[in-house]
Amino acid sequence: MTPEEERIVRQRQRSRALVLALLLGGFVVLMYAISIIKMTGD
Amino acid sequence: MNTTTIGTPAAIPADWRDFLALTKPRVLTLVVFTGLCGLLAAPVGVHPVIGFTAILCIAMAAGAAGALNQWYESDLDARMKRTAKRPLPAGRMDRDTAFQFGVGLGVFSVILMGLAVNLVAAAILAVSILFYVVVYTIWLKRRTPQNIVIGGAAGAFPPMIGWAAATGDVTLMPVLLFTLIFLWTPPHFWALALFVKTDYANAGVPMLPVVAGERVTRQQIGLYTLPMAACAIAPWPLGFAGWIYGLTAVGASAWFAWLALRVSTRTTGTDDAMQPEKRLFAFSILYLFALFGALVVDRMLLA
């Protein structure tokens, strides 16, 4: 792998990890909200 | 690690934007909109968080279906100008990654819908994914010019799922909304197929203009428009919607019918820009947005 390809790989891994982290964070918040609604029946 | 298939021998993982492109974001817009309208038009209110979750599940399921469609059709996509730049034919992602992404997203959407919303909505959601991937993409698309007629049912599910998410059941009104999109799909797609006919012919997809010719396709566009318009207007006399929806449906359907009539009664000339066909295709998208938007406005103001 050339240095340029390695740079692209690292860059893509970083951006994918960031997007996944954001999605997971959103999912946790959603699960929390759904749980509260189901528990309170509101 | 997910790798590209062509371009470089090195292992380059696909970009997150390629995963997004795999979900066909432009198609998602209409799917999400009709699903949301089905949810909002239902006679029962739903908690905003549960409603948001239902729409999210519909979007994820549609994205999953789109990803699995691109996974199966990467060879076709590579032969069509319109689709050649998608992540798989362009070599930015390998097929296994697309398959795993599609299956994962689809299963996740159904489970989330079942746990957070209700089982009826989850069941219809699962059927809609399977219908689009198995019945339309794998079974019909390459075999029959009726592919989009039957396959159109897959795109007709979202308002029914939205309705089921709110009410937990399926009554005549969501069935009418389903039928409306089902009958709308053939004139919508055949208008497109008329002006990208060469693309479909090159890819070997048996679209109606390729197999039966333009004259038959134009006739069929006209024939499907009539029951579609009747189905669009039906909720008004049946008492499922008020005058706001009714007048919008009558006006929009009349304009759709006029555009369809122009397409039905003409023949393609040399160096034809296919303007009437392009106009019908563009308006057909606006038509669905207008009808479903009017339905929600009608429900909110008059119910």
Automatic annotation (TrEMBL), chain B:
Name of the protein described by the UniProt record: Protoheme IX farnesyltransferase
Record localization: Cell membrane
GO terms of biological process kind: heme O biosynthetic process
Function as written in the Swiss-Prot or TrEMBL entry: Converts heme B (protoheme IX) to heme O by substitution of the vinyl group on carbon 2 of heme B porphyrin ring with a hydroxyethyl farnesyl side group.
Cellular component terms per the entry's GO annotation: plasma membrane
The keyword ATP-binding is annotated on this UniProt entry: no
Catalysed transformations (reactions): heme b + (2E,6E)-farnesyl diphosphate + H2O = Fe(II)-heme o + diphosphate
TM ranges: 27-46, 52-72, 93-113, 119-140, 147-166, 172-196, 221-238, 244-261, 281-302
Family: Belongs to the UbiA prenyltransferase family. Protoheme IX farnesyltransferase subfamily.
Further remark: Carbon 2 of the heme B porphyrin ring is defined according to the Fischer nomenclature.
Membrane topology: Multi-pass membrane protein
Gene Ontology molecular-function annotations: protoheme IX farnesyltransferase activity
Known EC number: 2.5.1.141
Coiled-coil positions: none
Alphabetically ordered keywords of this record: Cell membrane, Heme biosynthesis, Membrane, Transferase, Transmembrane, Transmembrane helix
NCBIfam families on file: cyoE_ctaB, PRK04375.1-2
Keyword Metal-binding: no
Protein's pathway: Porphyrin-containing compound metabolism; heme O biosynthesis; heme O from protoheme: step 1/1
Stored Pfam families: UbiA (PF01040)
